[in-house]
Design a protein that fits this description.
globular, 8 strands, alpha/beta
Length: 174
């Protein structure tokens, strides 16, 4: 096992930023109040795989957006923190809730508000278009930009490292 797999094998909670990670980062405004976001369907499937494996997923976003809360609801993500630019207290709350240490947590982030988490967690990941400071703090800079399935890649790595990937694939008859 390489270092990333050793880190992934310990993960018991996956936290993720939203804008620029689960979405491409663009906000679409129309005549109605609020905005829309595009989420990748593969990230949704991977969220469910992690949940079924007993690994909760938490959304921690600086932007308070109805679209984020709706996506969390659709996926059964119980821990949705929208409108939290100071993310470290949220991470501490989640670790207390689940009885975890930082090294048992993965975080996906792309910009400066994610640095306090990325510098502490056991598996820090970012998309290829993340801020340079974020890339420098991460254990894994994925080969894809935000919004194109980063959570899917990370979930697969975690499940493989924990010996759970065959069960996930097996549910689809493969």
């Amino acid at each position: 096992m390489d270092d990333l797999d050793l880190r992934a094998a310990k993960i018991r909670l996956l936290c993720t930023d939203i804008d620029g990670v689960l979405t491409p980062g663009a906000l679409t405004y129309g005549r109605e109040p609020g905005h829309t976001k595009d989420f990748h369907v593969r990230d949704g499937a991977a969220t469910k795989w992690l949940q079924r494996a007993g690994i909760p997923v938490a959304f921690i976003s600086g932007l308070d957006a109805a679209a984020t809360r709706h996506r969390a609801e659709d996926l059964g993500v119980e821990d949705c923190f929208a409108g939290h630019l100071d993310k470290l207290p949220v991470l501490d709350q989640l670790c207390a809730k689940y009885g975890l240490t930082y090294d048992q947590v993965a975080h996906l982030g792309d910009d400066l508000p994610d640095l306090p988490l990325l510098s502490r967690v056991g598996l820090a990941c970012c998309p290829s278009d993340a801020a340079p400071e974020v890339k420098g703090a991460c254990h894994w800079v994925a080969e894809i930009p935000g919004g194109l399935g980063l959570l899917r890649l990370v979930a697969e790595r975690i499940l493989k490292a924990q010996g759970r990937w065959a069960d996930t694939v097996g549910k689809y008859g493969a």
